Batch of 3 targets.
Target 1
Amino acid sequence: MTEDKRYHPRKPYFMPVDYIDRNRIYKEYIVDISAGGIFIKTSNDVPVGNEITLTVPFPYQNYMSISGVVVRSTPDGIAVRFHRSDLEIVTRLESMVEEIKIINDNTSGRN
């Protein structure tokens, strides 16, 4: 049995995302998100440890620019941990991820 080491729960969140890695801009899709990080579906080879900057859309908000570090790279995509140095951004992220949960809960019963 494996133990989940995540502090923040993940939420499914299929949305477009732009990110910059090594001075190159990529357009991909978010698979899931939490207040601590994001998983991006990509076939690009982004090494673990690379610093990237993301532009993430949120419900009822404009886009937010967030920086992070790649903590896992797989053939399916990359996991990025957000930098936690900006308390305002962290607070906004936690609030927005909760909004995503509410939206997902409200739409999951629809056909």
Target 2
Amino acid sequence: MKTQNTTLRTLANGIAIIAVAGLFTVTLQAKDYQMTDHTIRWTGSMPAKTHEGLLPLKSFHADITDEGKVTALTAVVDMTKINVTDLEGGKRDKLTGHLKSDDFFHVEEYPTAIFILSEHKDGKLHGTLTIRGVSKRVALPVKVSGHPDRGWILAGDFDYNRIDFGVDYQNSGFLGFVNAAKSKLIDDMIDVSISVKVEPKA
């Protein structure tokens, strides 16, 4: 009888452990979400003025748990559609064309910028950012707010050093010294503000 009771207790404990483990697994399981709206605003500065514009996402995929933890994320930015919003007419077109040229983002050769998540920890998305073919490890502060059934908003502000990614006047050839001097007039840091809304996939 004693042996039977011990066996029953052992079986009950085993079932309890499996149940708890099952609940834990369900809690951490991530859902697949699709992007429904987004805004990416960039700001670049010079001593006498500041320019700003928008960048569109070409694609965005995210897996997020019910607790708002991002377990997977890949964002692809369409650099061919970078624009300027603080200028109009010919001035806007000139600056936009300049940003797309090989002096800066060289969109003909590098049409996209990509961020791939490796870990969501301490309020930051840690991962690899690739711009102009150069990949760097980054940690982007992003707040995740919302509800698993209604969707989430991922929003944050950060900056990056354009020189680290080769986003610079190309200083070769006859105009090398002139371009190097021009580059010194532009702040190395580019500010980025991002907001992405995602909803559960049907």
Target 3
Amino acid sequence: MKVFTDREDNLKPACESTRMNRLDSDDKGFLDFILTKMPSGLIVFNDKIKVVYMNRTAEHFTHRYKIPDEVAVICGRIFSAITAGKFDELFPGEIILYRKPENSTNSWIFRIYVYKVPSPLIAVYISEEKISDKINLNERRIQFKLTRRELDVLRRVVDGLSNSEISKDCEISEYTVKDHLSSILSKFGVKNRFELICALTQASRSETDLLHEKVGPGRVC
């Protein structure tokens, strides 16, 4: 279990090389930018199990899915353990939940971290086990001569996002998303999203089969 017992000490290893501990008030916008753009969702709870901070990625998650009930239950147990002085005894290791929310095609990972002083807070980092992470999309970009932006759209199509969600995620208009998607379908020689996913997964399987042929049975790489 990662416990933040002092903010300065917690940041010290990184600060020794980057001197981030010297950020002044003018850099608050930069920190806000980092928290907003970070790929993991971040939700911070206080000891009343109330949300005191949520970044944009976490907002997207909560608009689509429900946070597992276990998260609030575990947060309550952690705060109770801190109050009783038994936190280290009851939570000696990392706290990680793997859950598949209703209507989600993928599982999600919830990593829980505790900041104990001066007043306890709990940070929950949310990340998705994405299908796009299992496919070499950079190879597909080269093979089908996709632009960087088309690759951005393709990655989100693979992960099941709608045109509207892709528009918000990439900060482009929905019309532009449709334009990119039309170009992607044309380059792949397919008619719709379903055929596109089939083409991608088939190519991925072919790569895996070829790798097995090269490596041979019983080898691990």
